[in-house]
């Protein structure tokens, strides 16, 4: 086995990782780069808790060999906010009880981010469709959908000002 | 981690060369949504893996009355690019957004439960597949691509490179029935392509997913329709024929018996959707 070095961008920062072949992006983000928002949930692509954006599109980082993101832009939830200020999606989750234990929240928020970037005015059905790959075992989903609706409204109000 | 190499060829020829050199030990993946879960769980323990993401097969090209789909076109891009309603519907009912961004059209022909929903739609559309080796390529109708449970007509050294879908003026319906609405394997998937002439069926193809060792055509059911108007009794006869000729399996989602009943129910519903309701009520 020969390790390989992979260079890519994480949330605006250039990074390099030395990995065994076929190491997953999830493992590199969490275990090498310390981005603990990226959960190792089911490792099957079934729970969505490892969701990150690759060139702006949501993907399951547990199914993605890190070699395949060489030269590409990866975004994790850590990029949304600064220590002083939450992103409007995070603010909306906080205000609408969009999380309980918080385990699924980063994946949910990354899907919300991609959805609102593509479609700033989603219908409730479009939000439900977008979240179909993300499992929450606490809230029963309604507060999460409410949160994303609220984030969309906040975005529209900000755009109108 | 026991994997010695992850090859990432940049052309199909390079991929075929690696396949020829490394031989049957090489696991070929594209989007990774089928193989990576098995590798993560330690169920699949390949020593060498080749990924086709960069091999230039993520194409979508209408060519006259055929659309040529590259084998590694992500399912999301199929939903964005195709104007074939049956393909779009099947693609949208496949897995979840994040998985559709990774999973590929060609990969769907190899996906569990055996083969996916896009594969079932492609079978109903009478798609052809191109299998390419170092010595050249050959085309097969999709119906001849699957040879049994998780086995295909691919020879050693060959790659599935493209899927050709004829563009016909036809009426189609698609129903995926699962244990929940989204992000779930099918209990049964039904895709119907029909040519209707003055209310009578001039020709029909009915494809069933999760109702056999691979997606299958319900040819006896198709024969029941031929030349007939889609009356309730004709639809019932076709649905009964499909239930009799399918060969479903039992898994964690559904039993063989249940699947067979669902084939009857959903073939009937799919056929009833082919035409506007008559006598003011849905069939």
> What is the string of SSEs of chain A from the N terminus onward?
EEHEEEHHHH
CATH homologous superfamily identity of the largest domain in chain A: Beta-grasp domain
Sheet-strand content of chain B, in percent, reads 25-35%
Q: Shape of chain A from CA axes? A: globular
> Helical content of chain A, roughly?
25-40%
Report the uncertain regions of chain A. none
Please list the strands of the largest sheet of chain A in the order they lie side by side. Answer: 2-1-5-3-4
Extract low-pLDDT stretches of chain B. 276-283
CATH level 1 name of the largest domain in chain B: Alpha Beta
As for the CATH topology of the largest domain in chain A, it is Ubiquitin-like (UB roll)
The total domain count of chain B is 3
How many discrete structural domains of chain A? 2
C-alpha termini separation of chain A: 56 Å
The appropriate CATH architecture of the largest domain in chain A is Roll
Distance between the termini of chain B: 56 Å
The biggest beta sheet of chain A is recorded as: 5 strands, mixed
> Care to count the β-strands of chain A?
5
Biggest contact: A-B, 32 and 29 residues
Radius of gyration of chain A: 16 Å
Helix/strand class of chain A: alpha+beta
Total count of strands of chain B: 14
